[in-house]
Write a structure and sequence with these properties.
This protein is an alpha/beta fold and 161 residues long. It has four helices and seven strands, in the order H-E-H-E-H-E-E-H-E-E-E. The chain has a seven-stranded mixed sheet with strand order 2-1-3-4-5-6-7. A hairpin with a 2-residue loop joins strand 3 and strand 4. The longest helix has 27 residues. It is elongated, with a radius of gyration of 22 Å.
């Protein structure tokens, strides 16, 4: 009787561990930062930028509604505008911001609205396809401040990105 109880107890422990094992993987899995994007449904470079984010470990939700209303709602001045606007962990992203700069932003958590790459510089993520002939223009990633000013967050010289 004691032997049977011990075997039954071991069997129940193994069953419980087998049932909990998938949960351990979920708990141990790294959390993918979630980015919500607002863009024009016909914009190809925006799709390429979203693919860049996904390839760099971000979970992305896309809204095909245009970005003007969201840009205004997030407090991004028109002069910093580009073709898409996004939100990640309370920070705004405007334009073709490289994934590595977004990761640095999330790690450091500086004060500000978020990051912007004004315009659409060739060579930035999403603007780096074969149709641009390997051209890479110099550009800056800006950290936008709440007072409307900015600081240069990262500089790309056009030689590497």
């Amino acid at each position: 009787m004691v032997m049977r109880t011990t075997i039954e107890l071991q069997r129940r422990r193994w069953l419980a561990m087998a049932l909990l094992l998938p949960l351990a993987d979920a708990w141990a899995a790294p959390i993918r930062p979630s980015v919500e994007v607002w863009k024009d449904p016909n914009c190809g470079c925006c799709k390429d930028w979203v693919a860049h984010l996904v390839a760099n470990g971000f979970a992305v939700k896309v809204n095909e509604t245009g970005s003007n209303a969201m840009r205004s709602q997030l407090g991004i001045a028109e002069k910093y505008g580009s073709c898409h606007t996004a939100l990640v962990a309370g920070y705004a992203l405007e334009g073709h911001v490289p994934a590595r700069d977004i990761k640095r932003l999330l790690q450091g958590r500086p004060e500000g609205i978020g990051l912007a790459v004004p315009g659409m510089p060739v060579g930035s993520p999403g603007m780096d396809g074969p149709e641009y002939g390997n051209r890479k223009d110099a550009y800056n990633v800006l950290l936008l401040k709440k007072d409307g000013s900015f600081t240069v967050y990262q500089t790309y010289d056009g030689k590497k990105s």
